[in-house]
Amino acid sequence: GFEVVLARAGCSVAVAPGKSILDALLEAGIEAPYSCHEGVCGTCETRVLEGEPDHRDLVLSRAEHESGKVMMICVSGCKGKKLVLDM
Ligand code: FES
Q1: Which residue among 3, 13, 74, 75 sits deepest, i.e. has the most Cβ atoms within 10 Å of its Cβ?
Q2: Positive or negative CA dihedral for 77, 6, 62, 67?
Q3: Residue 70's pLDDT is what?
Q4: In this protein, which residues make up the domain named 2Fe-2S ferredoxin-type (predicted)?
Q5: For ligand 1, is residue 36 a contact (CB within 6 Å)?
Q6: What is the mean pLDDT of residues 44-72?
């Protein structure tokens, strides 16, 4: 598991192993836009301020994956212990 810090909301949520960031946010009562829940539509695209995403989506280009600046929170995770998101 890892921690997700929502920079603008000023709160953080723990993401249990095997759970998606999106589901952890929704279960914590935080509203986040999404549609497909499968990493294909792009609706849940979120800017990453800190931390290294573990990309599992089919939306972003390889260059965008390598930049680490945006991620799809419905499927992608974290390679470290903490992600800071612009939301
Ligand atoms: Fe469709 Fe995340 S909800 S890519």
Answers
A1: 74
A2: negative
A3: 98
A4: 2-87
A5: yes
A6: 98
pTM for this predicted structure: 0.95
CB of 32 shorter than 6 A to ligand 1: no
Residue 86 to residue 36: CA distance in whole angstroms: 21
**Secondary structure string (H, E, C) spanning the chain:** CEEEEECCCCEEEEECCCCCHHHHHHHCCCCCCCCCCCCCCCCCEEEEEECCEECCCCCCCHHHHHHCCEEECCCCEECCCEEEECC
Q: How remote is the CA of residue 75 from the centroid of ligand 1, in Å?
A: 8
